[in-house]
Design a protein that fits this description.
3 helices, about 20% helix
C-alpha cells in the first residue's frame, strides 16, 4: 500500500515534493526529469547548474530539463554539459490564456539533456 492507502500500481511513478533551496537539492540516483517555469534569475540559475554538475558528474544522459519561458537559457546553451534537444512554442489552453497576463497564447519551451 502507498501512504495514501491506494494499492501500488506499476503504471505510476512515485513523486516526491520537496520545499527547499533548489541550489542545495541533492538529486536522486537514476534518471531525473527537472521541470522549470522560469523560476530563477540568472544568478540562481547559475548556482543550480553548478548543483547539477556536482550531482550528475559521471551520469551523462541521466537528466532532462524542461524549461518553459527560458529567460536564462543562454546559461544552459553556453554550458558544454547541456545539449539542446528541442525548442519551440507550446499552445496554452483557453483557460490559461484568459488569465495569463502575457498577451500570447503560446509559451516558449526548451528541452535540454545533461551530457556531462
Amino acid at each position: 500500500m502507498l501512504p495514501c492507502g491506494r494499492p501500488r500500481d506499476e503504471r505510476f511513478v512515485p513523486v516526491r515534493i520537496v520545499c527547499q533551496d533548489a541550489t542545495e537539492f541533492v538529486f536522486p540516483e537514476g534518471a531525473c526529469l527537472l521541470y522549470l517555469f522560469n523560476p530563477f534569475a540568472a544568478p540562481v540559475m547559475k548556482r543550480l547548474i553548478e548543483r547539477i554538475e556536482a550531482d550528475f558528474a559521471g551520469r551523462p544522459g541521466m537528466l532532462d530539463l524542461i524549461y518553459f519561458n527560458p529567460e536564462a537559457a543562454e546559461l544552459l546553451e553556453a554550458h558544454r554539459g547541456f545539449e539542446l534537444l528541442w525548442t519551440g512554442t507550446v499552445a496554452m489552453s483557453e483557460e490559461d490564456t484568459a488569465v495569463d497576463w502575457v498577451a500570447s497564447a503560446e509559451d516558449l519551451c526548451s528541452v535540454y539533456r545533461w551530457i556531462g
